[in-house]
UniProtKB/TrEMBL annotation:
A GO CC term attached to the entry: extracellular region
Protein name per its UniProtKB record: Peroxidase
Cofactor needs: Ca(2+); heme b
Protein task: Removal of H(2)O(2), oxidation of toxic reductants, biosynthesis and degradation of lignin, suberization, auxin catabolism, response to environmental stresses such as wounding, pathogen attack and oxidative stress. These functions might be dependent on each isozyme/isoform in each plant tissue.
Length: 334
């Protein structure tokens, strides 16, 4: 074969390889579209309606479920991947994320199973627990009077708990504002987004275990004195029983409503947690707190943006992960 023929053959081979690579790449893109709007439109078109209806029915019977759905999206999606690892029960080999200190107070997981069962009746083995977790949060926000947020779907479920690394991702309520800002920045949520996400503290309640250090042995002097009286009434013990129903509502004015009243409260030194106080006083966050205290529209806009970013944090898509049969247990692989 002449040298000219060899060169021609070599370039032809390269060209053919390039076509094959592009073809394989295109096939992979077809197999894994990533997160998209209405991912289940062909495989389970009624999925989102079923989830929405279940969230509505559960909220009607158990108002606190909506708080749980809102907490779930933060506790799951902020920890490395939005893959429903939070929902996995403990096994002989691994501790559940649900049983860690950072997850104290999380509950109503059995009702998430109720939603999963309803979806499975319609479309067995199609809709992931990760998508159910995210969509239940979206619909729970609406139940609480918050904005409707259009969220993409197509997540798949992880197979392992991340309990051992959870504290690297979820900031504690006593962390410095610098740590809190850094943790959120790592997943793409900026300062106004963080301030808006913490507006979720406008609903639900805080167990006395998490706030007695601000009351005993001495009352934190920065607390609003009028509010201290109420806090002491609700938390009369310096060492409360973690299993006792002892708590303070996060917002006494509109405790069941997601609104910007939270920001007015923390500017008035009525925040229950250290992070609430820091949010209202730190020079990096205070301007946004004041802006959200004045404008609920601005709060909702930033809240929707932050929830969207959180919901899209490093999901498993395509052929990664699995579709769990039960949200609390990884599928058995033979």
């Amino acid at each position: 074969m002449s040298s000219r023929a060899v060169v021609f053959f070599f370039f032809a081979l390269l060209s053919f390889s390039g076509i094959c690579l592009r073809s394989a790449s295109a096939d992979n893109e077809e197999e894994d579209p990533g997160l998209v709007m209405n991912f289940y439109k062909d495989t389970c078109p009624q999925a989102e309606d079923v989830i929405r209806e279940q969230v509505r029915l559960l909220y009607k019977r158990h108002k606190n479920t909506a708080f749980s759905w809102l907490r779930n999206i933060f506790h799951d999606c902020a920890v490395q991947s939005c893959d429903a690892s939070l929902l996995l029960d403990s096994t002989r080999r691994s501790l559940s994320e649900k049983e860690t200190d950072r997850s104290f107070g999380l509950r109503n997981f059995r009702y998430l199973d109720t939603i999963k069962e309803a979806v499975e009746r319609e479309c067995p083995g199609v809709v992931s627990c990760a998508d159910i977790l995210v969509l239940s949060a979206r619909d729970g926000i609406v139940s609480l009077g918050g904005p409707h947020i259009s969220l993409k779907t197509g997540r798949r479920d992880g197979r392992k708990s991340r309990a051992e690394i959870l504290e690297e991702y979820l900031p504690d309520h006593n962390e410095s504002m610098s740590v809190v800002l850094d943790r959120f920045a790592a997943i793409g949520i900026d300062t106004p987004g963080l301030v808006a996400l913490l507006g979720a503290h406008s609903v639900g309640r805080t167990h006395c275990v998490k706030l007695v250090h601000r009351l005993y042995p001495e009352v934190d002097p920065v607390l609003n004195t009028d509010h201290v009286e109420h806090m002491l009434h609700k938390c009369p013990d310096a060492i409360p029983d973690p299993k006792a129903v002892q708590y303070v509502r996060n917002d006494r004015g509109t405790p069941m409503k997601l609104d910007n009243n939270y920001y007015r409260n923390i500017l008035d030194n009525k925040g229950l947690l250290i992070v609430d106080h820091q949010l209202a006083t730190d020079k990096r966050t205070k301007p946004y707190v004041k802006k959200m205290a004045k404008s609920q529209d601005y709060f909702f806009k930033e809240f929707a943006r932050a929830i969207t970013i959180l919901s899209e944090n490093n999901p498993l898509t395509g052929t990664k992960g699995e579709i769990r049969k039960q949200c609390s247990v990884a599928n058995k692989h033979h």
